[in-house]
Amino acid sequence: MADLRPLSVELRRIAETELNEVEERLPADLKALRDWLAKQPHLKVRQDDQFLVGFLRGCKFSLEKTKSKLDHFYTIKTLMPELFGKILVDEKSLILCRSGTYVRLPKPWGVDGPRLQLTNYEKFDPKQFKLLDLFRYQTMLSEQSIREDDHSNISGYVEIIDMAKLSLSFLAQLDFTLIKRMGIFAEKAQPTRLKGVHLINCPKEGVALLNLAKSLMPSKLQQRFHVYKNLEQLNEVIPREYLPEEYGGTNGRIADIQAEAEKQLLSYRSYFAEDAQYGVDEHLRPGKRVSADSIFGAEGSFRKLDID
Questions:
Q1: Alpha carbon distance 305, 175 (integer Å)
Q2: Where's the CRAL-TRIO domain (predicted)?
Q3: pLDDT by residue (tens digit) across 257-289?
Q4: Fewer Cβ neighbours under 10 Å: the N or C end of the chain?
Q5: Which domains does the chain have, with CATH numbers?
Q6: Distance CA 114, CA 158 (A)
């Protein structure tokens, strides 16, 4: 038997009807994936059952798609050492956690629905952090979810982004090359599936920049962006009960969510410290080597936006 966390009745139904998961076949599916990995001299990956089944579920149990996603996951991480090279549970990540800038809400959107994740840029201090720090923290939580969050793995996840008090100093940090790369990572490498990005309270200064950032995303992700003038418009799509108390809902208090997230992050300290041993060695890849250009395409010369 595969060493996996049991699913709820609702998620088991989704896994079987939408993801093509057959419980009795899981050991054979995992063995087929490990047999392939054993023949990939360039690729060193985590191989515990819960981690690998996250990729199988994210690819609807297509072995070929799972191979590609696993390879892209570690290839892109290796190609982006500035983001993935030193992922540590350090004081900076803990301070960012405590800020409440980015939280995963405890109650999913329905008993068999996606995980809801909330970003509030009012809580992000651009004098203390860079956009890269926030993305690094988000990838840490995302990797936790591969192993811990059955809703994310089976039903996907939804991002809610509150831009009410977006500062000009934050906008000045926007790195469009980084944003483009993160979009490609989300599509080609991340096993948990992004179901939607819902932006509220977007200031007029941010609309043009948002459109530019969105244009750099893969077309499939572009179609999943939705912009609302205010919270009331969002609640026509996502009922208020699924939002935290600070937004008039019943989905936890942000202070409590932060505290629980910090405990979980600390419990992953050794997990992330081990990450350095995993990755891709292009010198050992059979066939043609992969480069940043072949993954990300032409990126031009834009890096950051200059705002006076």
A1: 7
A2: 133-255
A3: 999 999 999 999 999 999 889 999 999 999 999
A4: C
A5: 9-84+276-288 (no CATH), 91-265 (3.40.525.10)
A6: 6
**Beta-sheet strand order (sheet of 225-228):** 102-104, 115-120, 157-162, 194-200, 225-228
Segment 168-197 shows an average pLDDT of 89
pLDDT tens, 156-181? Answer: 999 999 988 877 777 777 888 898 99
Residue with tokens 């070929």: 64
CA dist., res. 35 & res. 199, Å (int)? 43
The alpha-helical segments, DSSP class H, found in the chain are: 9-18, 26-37, 49-58, 63-79, 81-84, 91-99, 131-148, 150-155, 168-171, 176-188, 204-215, 219-222, 231-235, 254-267, 269-273, 292-296
* Contact criterion met (CB below 8 Å) for 176 and 203: no
The two three-digit tokens of residue 113, written as one number:
């629905």
Separation in Å, CA 97 to CA 119, 136, 173, 174, 264: 11, 11, 20, 21, 11
Strand partners, 194: 157
